[in-house]
Amino acid sequence: MMNEDKDLGPRTKTFAAAQVLGKQTLRAGTSVGANYREAHRPRSKAEFISKIGDCLKEADETLYWLELLLEESFVPASRLRPLVNEANELVAIFTTISKHARGIA
Q: What pTM was computed for the model?
């Protein structure tokens, strides 16, 4: 009985980690769209810049969680690669929008 408990320790930790990473990815990923929607109804240019910055931050955070899921092999790479690519593209797009809005680019 004791050996079974020891064998399940790492397995249950991995399971818990996968759950946490999945929830964090979902939270950050859905936040991108919510902030983008808010950016379409800004009360000022400053608010637009702020919301686009939030989109960028959340897209980059989503990318972070996806990378962790990929590195830990919790999800097959073939399923995650398109999401990682999309997150990278969104980060690039929101970076460009943010720079243009702030007059940097």
A: 0.86
